[in-house]
Design goal:
With 141 residues, this protein is an alpha+beta fold. It is built from four helices and six strands; from the N terminus they run ααβααβββββ. It is globular and about 45 Å long. The N and C termini lie far apart (66 Å).
C-alpha cells in the first residue's frame, strides 16, 4: 500500500511540474513586442475557430506577398493537456528598406467558439542598425 501511495504521489508531482514548465511565461513574452489583439485580428480577418483554419487565414490575409521570399507557420501545443497553443508566423524578405523579416507569436486558448487569441507579440529582423538580421523586439530604425 505504501508503494502505491508513493508511486501515485510521484506521478502527481511529475504532472504538476510538467504543467508548470509547459505554461507560457512572461520570460518568453518579454522577447516580443506586444501587439494589440483587436487590430491584429482585424488585419488578418481572424475569428475564434480551428487552429489550422486560423493558420491558413494568416497566410491568405494581411499584407501583399509581393517581394516576400518566404513565409512559414508553425503550430505548437506546449501544454500536456493541449490546453493552449502557439502559432508562430514568420514572414522573411519583406519589401521594406528597414524591416527585413517579422515573426509573430500568437498564443491561443480554447473557447466555446474554438481557439481564441489571448496574446500576440512581434519580433523583427532589421536591415539597418547595430545588429542587422538579428531578431529583436525593438522597432527597426
Amino acid at each position: 500500500m505504501l508503494q502505491r501511495t508513493l508511486l501515485l504521489a510521484a506521478v502527481v508531482a511529475s504532472q504538476t511540474a510538467c504543467r508548470a514548465i509547459a505554461q507560457p511565461t512572461s520570460n518568453l513574452r518579454s522577447n516580443y513586442r506586444n501587439v494589440e489583439i483587436a487590430p491584429f485580428t482585424q488585419r488578418y480577418d481572424l475569428e475564434p475557430g480551428n487552429l489550422n483554419e486560423i493558420a491558413a487565414q494568416l497566410l491568405e490575409s494581411g499584407d501583399s506577398a509581393e517581394g516576400r521570399q518566404q513565409e512559414t507557420i508553425k503550430i505548437d501545443y506546449p501544454g500536456i493537456d493541449r490546453d493552449y497553443a502557439i502559432i508562430e508566423h514568420t514572414q522573411i524578405g519583406l519589401p521594406d528598406d528597414s524591416v527585413g523579416s517579422i515573426r509573430y507569436r500568437i498564443e491561443l486558448q480554447p473557447s466555446p467558439n474554438g481557439w481564441a487569441i489571448e496574446w500576440v507579440g512581434a519580433q523583427y529582423q532589421c536591415r539597418r542598425g547595430g545588429n542587422p538580421n538579428r531578431w529583436t523586439s525593438r522597432l527597426c530604425p
